[in-house]
Design brief:
Helix content is 39%, strand content 22%. The protein has 8 helices and 12 strands.
Amino acid sequence: MTRRTILLVEDEHDIQELLKFHLERENMNLEAVDTGEDALEFLKTHDIALILLDLMLPGMDGLDVCRRLKAQNETRDIPIIMLTAKDSEADIVTGLEMGAADYVPKPFSPRVLVARIHAVLRRPVPVLSNNDTGPAIRVGALTVDPERHKVEVKGKDIQLTYTEFRILQLLAENPGRAFTRQQIVDQVRGESYSVTERIVDVQMVSLRKKLGPLGDWIETVRGVGYRFKEV
């Protein structure tokens, strides 16, 4: 079996050594660099299966590194798992919107991180919903137009990411119906796309914030997931 190589961008050498031990036990190689600048140079000459990216780095921070990697054709498809000691939803949302596959807060269990790595590496190319030609959905002051990929609140354009738009479209098309987090992932990304429930929650926080007062129309159903209020 070919050993996959993981790149760790992390300036704490104790974490480098810890993850090297655990990943080698899983038949994976680990390459480690201390800075974002070193990571960009390393990727010019090496093929990597996945990147573990600390957000708090000396020099260029992790979000800047993620942004650059996703902007380059040579590296945009390499999955990234963010490692973060920050308890900031804004940083997490930003990273996910840039295209990061997952995030793991510090301190973390090496076994849990290894499981996340395996889950990300098993993911096929996402099969996205193709419901782009349906009629516009109008609920009160909210308009969701799938064909134009446009959302308006009281006639004002609201800028959503692709995933936020799909989540809103799904919920608004089915007012009153409760969806579990996994059902939301299956509908938005395709049934084979593995993702943690926590990412759905983070996307909901961002979506509600962007919708302003209408964000209250997305209701949390305790023990289940989310639904769009019947107006």
